[in-house]
Amino acid sequence: xxxxxxxxxxxxxxxxxxxxxxxxxxxxxxxxxxxxxxxxxxxxxxxxxxxxxxxxxxxxxxxxxxxxxxxxxxxxxxxxxxxxxxxxxxxxxxxxxxxxxxxxxxxxxxxxxxxxxxxxxxxxxxxxxxxxxxxxxxxxxxxxxxxxxxxxxxxxxxxxxxxxxxxxxxxxxxxxxxxxxxxxxxx
Length: 187
What we know:
Layout: H1 3-11, H2 15-33, H3 39-55, H4 66-104, H5 106-123, H6 127-137, H7 143-150, H8 154-171, H9 176-183
Family: Belongs to the sigma-70 factor family. ECF subfamily.
Organism: Parabacteroides goldsteinii dnLKV18
GO molecular function, one term: sigma factor activity
């Protein structure tokens, strides 16, 4: 069966013609594609092309020979795959460049670990101490503002903050010098 016959029968949904097309061109197209991309990718690419031809068989317009169409389509698909891969590599490199200093800095990992310890210690505080402490240190409110907000006396706010600090000092004793510097914890 020649290419013109294959194409005519294929456009009439002849599965035997599709089989002939596949048997005749699959291997040569894979070899051709492997000049541009990996063998595994070339097989997938040619399979996708063959599937595309079957799915569009009734509306497929080929202005050159079937053979030329297949090889040109394979080349264009390879070039698109290469461009897509290069695009993803550029994105990866851009992200890497933005973050590499952060990942190469040993302090980055230490500070992350320290932050986890601090958050855990704060979460383990009794609710009233934790809420008061958070408003004081992270909400940047004065003791009077905290007392008003919580509906307690200023002395109660001071007591809760001092108790929270005592508990945190014990739980974070290994990190106190750094904590004093970062968060203003009295040591």
